[in-house]
């Protein structure tokens, strides 16, 4: 936990920079489309913000969806590693459409109140157990797709989150074994209709969280071996260029391992399942006065080492 002075300094530093992440040879798996290709394909992003290597062209036997790719485990990952090591043609970023790195997962599990500083923002105690809710998989859209304001809500809010992608099936997983079940990490935007989350639907959170387009993901599934420490990453959200959330994942109350152990007591986790791990402070609903997204806004959610997703509000 950071001391207040250090947290203020960190926030100032984060606000002063745009995090010009450097390209790398890390494993950055993507789903994409291109005009000359039929249907979705699997690829490798050639560094954060780079072009795309077509994995299905490198090995036509590979599946074309991330869930199927993950289901095949080490055999498909080894092909991707070979492709990463080879000098393969790169499709320019301008010629491809990035899809969410995972589409149609079995489940999207979400965690509420999982940042110490977000709890302080609400003046509520830090939870003693993870607070679990969900979004429907139909809410998932790509990293640069539009967020559609639903006519039924007037209070749509932003939440940048670190998302964990499960790599293999498991139940009753021990925290000490949990990282073996993780494929990697990506950036998520847990778009939230506060009126439906906090006042309607018996105050059950589901409907307020799961309108269509309320789960932008991407740009890539960065494999766990490519992330130095998922619990020490700068995390930031900007609305129309203004920093509204700025923290680090070391503020998470329950880390990835604890969350997987907790959730897997109740449900079986499958390859491609997504766990959204909570949001830092700075959301619109707790501002004075509250601020909500409106037509024409642009939201950028960014996490160090993982990348940035940019979604226009329409």
UniProtKB/TrEMBL annotation:
Domain spans labelled Fumarylacetoacetase-like C-terminal: 107-314
GO molecular function: hydrolase activity; metal ion binding; oxaloacetate tautomerase activity
Domain of life (superkingdom): Eukaryota
Cofactors that this protein relies on: Mn(2+)
Keywords: Hydrolase, Metal-binding
SUPFAM superfamilies linked to this entry: FAH
Annotated InterPro entries: FAH, Fumarylacetoacetase-like_C, Fumarylacetoacetase_C_sf
GO BP term (any one): oxaloacetate metabolic process
Family named by the database record: Belongs to the FAH family.
Name used for this protein in its record: Fumarylacetoacetate hydrolase domain-containing protein 2A
Organism: Myotis davidii
